[in-house]
Structure formats: C-alpha cells, structure tokens
Amino acid sequence: MKEQLKYEFRFDYLPNLSSISEDNDVLIWIFHVDKIPPHIGISSEGVFFSLKSNGKDRLPTNNVNQISINKGIKILKVKLRFELGVSDIEGVYKDYTCAISAECSCLSPIKKALSMPEKVMKLSDLLNELLERDLIEGWYSNNVSYEEAGIRAYDIFEINARLKKLHA
Description:
The chain is an alpha+beta fold. It has five helices and eight strands. The chain has one domain.
C-alpha cells in the first residue's frame, strides 16, 4: 500500500495556471517539493533571488529553469498578486549572506520583501498568509504531478537539521 503523505498546504483549490510570465510576474519558486524542507526563491522582472547555505543567488530566471530541467528538479512556481521590482528584492537580499538556521533561512528575505509577520516561520505559514490576504493568483509546475502539489509537513527542527548538515 502506498504511503499517505501529510501535507500542511495543498494547491488543489488554487488555479493551476497553464502559463506564467517570468518577465512580468512576481513568483515564489519552490524547489524539491518532494523533500523536507523544500528550498524557495523569488523572482521579478526575469531575475531570480535565493538565499542558500553557501551564499545567495541572483540569476536570470531562464538560467534557473535550464538548471532545474537538466537536473529534473520538482518545482512549483506561485504567481503572486504583488508589486515588487528587482531593486526592491535586491534591497532586502543585501542584508543577508547565507542561510544558517530557521531564523535565517531561504524564507527570511522573502518574508521581509513581502512584509510578512513574525509568526510566518515556515513555507506553509507563508503560503497560508498569502492565501488569507488573497495574494496568490495561482501556480505553475515543472516535473510535479497533481498529487505532489503541496507542501509536506515539517517543523523548525527539520529546517535547522538540514542547514546544519549543509554547513557540516
């Protein structure tokens, strides 16, 4: 019998978009949706930003797409109803060097750029807050089946354990 996965957030009830514009849309990129915890980044105007354990990324979105296709990475892109330019995101990311813990993770600069409250500690919290504020227009995916379109349950300890392992 197949294991039933526990999800803290499902995309079932949100529009599954047939296309997005990485040049015009503000997107949250969720990498490795099948892993705990997943990794996230944000893009606007065709530029992708991400805080990682070994630094940060600022890349053209088409480069990120090519890398993810080449590696077969499962990605969900969440289209936001939010005005945010590249300079706004750069202004936030300049204050970060790398992800070191749940208090300073890949979520931290995104949370700050989107003016999210302190109670947002995990990706599912962020998505629920965005949903509550009606800021999610829909989602688009690469290599993700409809059944996998969700954020699996995890806690702060698992974020810290993952980052500790990456820093080891």
